[in-house]
Amino acid sequence: MKKVANSIDVHVGSRIRLRRVALGLSQEKLGDSLGITFQQVQKYEKGINRVGASRLQNISTALNVPIAFFFEESPRTAGEGPEEISDISTFVSSSEGLALNHAFMAITDPAIRQSIVKLAKTVARNESGKRAAE
User: Fold this and answer.
1) Which residues, at least 6 apart from 127, have a Cβ–Cβ distance to it below 8 Å?
2) Which of 87, 93, 99 is nearest to 124 (CA)?
3) Whole-angstrom Cα distance, residue 13 to residue 86?
4) Phi, psi of 79, rounded to the nearest 5 degrees
5) Does pLDDT of 76 surpass 60?
6) For a designed S-S bond to 27, which of 35, 41, 91, 113 qualifies (C-beta 3.0 to 4.6 A apart)?
7) Is the distance from CB of 43 to CB of 53 less than 8 angstroms?
8) pLDDT recorded at residue 134
9) Are 75 and 8 in contact (CB under 8 A)?
């Protein structure tokens, strides 16, 4: 019987990746600081391998966040499915998503923020329409 990743394991892994990328750390650097290989970091981030309690404590120290950070917005607390969490994590972990997030958070005017959200939704609808027409 093939092992299937638990949604919480996937979520914790995505939060590890989110924080690691936000700090500009490579998987190799994080692995070195933990005394493990970058392949093991990859497995944790994908939720393939479950992170034990002591290892999670070490990761939280290395990434300078409390352990609770890894469980924030988890599927069980936010009511979101694993796919939605994965989409958010993938977006924010990408260089474009990280840059967009930083730029968006620097905008203090709520009206401008709302305009940007509307623009993004309009562009997304137009892109979807183009793909459907092709």
Assistant:
1) none
2) 87
3) 10
4) 75, 15
5) no
6) 41
7) no
8) 62
9) yes
